[in-house]
TrEMBL record:
Belongs to the WD repeat STRAP family. WD repeats lie at residues 102-143, 285-323. This is Serine-threonine kinase receptor-associated protein. It comes from Bathycoccus prasinos. GO terms for biological process: spliceosomal snRNP assembly. GO terms for molecular function: RNA binding.
Length: 323
């Protein structure tokens, strides 16, 4: 029988069901007048939108015929972009759920990201290419298309080449002037100049980076590679802090407001740590029945979510510091 102190520190999260296969990506929207939203990607090919606080299901974005590896919302949470193993990325109306456009690729698409202003979309994947699409041009072109013909070979405005293996994650940084990317089979982070397509600099890591998070103010990058969780300064591109975990961590998220970071990986637990000391706060979050593939803090820092191989999403309350 658990002691009373153990019972007090053991947290019971909200458990969100609905996916039939592993969760591979989670992302929160920014805070909007209608609330904050959580979008999830799964190998079942059905990205889902939820209320970030309650975890209640809002809708499912239908249309992919393969695993969905990534999903993201634009700043006002009016549109959703998804990346899939069916060799496509899709753009959805996040309010109605309608698919607005399908971007055909020649291989698996692993990552998508809107620019800050929402007028551009980047994709990356097994072709080892980061593509930039101009959504304003897409909107103009759609006026001349048959309403039902929403799938086309859309030409990107530019292509960034030179990655040594498939693109795992790509994210806009520095007011959309730069693009940060990681590869599935090689270490390091590559910083591309979005205007010239040239790799401006490389951030060295010990292992392949499995998770990239850009802070809400754009000043910090959080990465996970092997047992390392690293916080980078965007201004200097130097690591501010690296925390060494006991297990390989697939994902990590830092909340500057709370001074905490959360990470999850192969040990199936969710860990919250104090940024200043690196010490774990409270008991680890237990309950997942498979590796934790993704973790993210909510924008207000009061809760965080985790997605696992077991196909569930769990929403946890951020613990208070010891003492």
């Amino acid at each position: 029988m658990a002691s009373s102190s153990q019972t007090q520190t053991q947290q019971v999260p909200l458990v969100c069901h609905g996916h039939s296969r592993p969760i591979v990506s989670l992302e929160y929207s920014k805070e909007t007048p209608d609330g904050t939203f959580l979008v999830s990607s799964s190998k079942d090919g059905k990205p889902m939108l939820r209320d970030a606080q309650s975890g209640d299901w809002i809708g499912t974005f239908e249309g992919h015929r393969g695993a969905c590896w990534d999903a993201t919302l634009n700043a006002p949470a009016t549109h959703c972009a998804t990346a899939s193993a069916d060799f496509s990325a899709k753009l959805f109306n996040a309010i109605t759920g309608d698919c607005l456009h399908t971007f055909a690729h020649k291989h698996i698409v692993k990552t998508v990201c809107f620019s800050t202003c929402g007028t551009k979309l980047i994709t990356g994947g097994s072709e080892k290419v980061v593509r930039i699409f101009d959504l304003r041009k897409l909107e103009l072109d759609s006026k001349n298309k048959d309403k039902d013909n929403i799938t086309s070979v859309t030409q990107p405005m530019s292509e960034l080449t030179g990655a040594p293996s498939q693109i795992k994650t790509a994210r806009y940084i520095c007011n959309d002037e730069l693009i940060l990317s990681s590869c599935s089979d090689n270490p390091d982070l590559r910083v591309w100049d979005a205007r010239t397509g040239i790799i401006a600099t490389t951030l060295k890591t010990e292992n392949a980076v499995t998770s990239i998070e850009i802070s809400e103010d754009g000043k910090y990058i959080t990465t996970a590679d092997g047992k390392n969780v690293t916080l980078w300064d965007v201004g200097s591109f130097r690591p501010m802090e690296t925390w060494k975990m006991k297990y390989n961590m697939e994902s990590a998220s830092v909340c500057m407001k709370e001074g905490k970071f959360v990470c999850g990986g192969e040990d199936m637990w969710v860990h919250v740590h104090d940024c200043a000391s690196g010490e774990e706060i409270g008991e680890p979050g237990k309950g997942h029945h498979g590796p934790v593939h993704c973790v993210r803090f909510a924008p207000d820092g009061k809760s965080y979510s985790s997605g696992s191989e077991d196909g569930t999403i769990r929403i946890w309350q951020t613990p208070a510091k010891k003492g």
